[in-house]
User: Fold this.
Amino acid sequence: MKKIEAIIKPFKLDDVKDRLAEIGIHGMTTSEVKGFGRGGGKAPVYPGAEYIVDFVPRVKLEIVVPDDMVHLTLETITDAARTGHVGDGKIFVLPVDEALRIRTGESGPDALS
Assistant:
């Protein structure tokens, strides 16, 4: 099993969620996060002042999938989240040693669905 963490633009969340549902992924955790990368944030100008906002809003998705679903999940997120502009986001893949469904006691990949 792998945990996929994707940092995407907030307005792409519904597109990503819908596309993941099409490939059979119906569960995920989302968080509102802030960060910056090479773009370095934004420099908004207000009357009489300019200042740097270092962090831009993003959404973080966390999804645990069986090993055989990793490649398709990565392709799906990438295709749905891409705008072609700076700041489209990043995806990270981490190993998951174990999963356990609290209600039933199911473990491993059986706990994911």
The radius of gyration is 17 Å. Residues 2-111 form a domain with the Alpha-Beta Plaits fold (CATH 3.30.70.120). The mean pLDDT is 90.
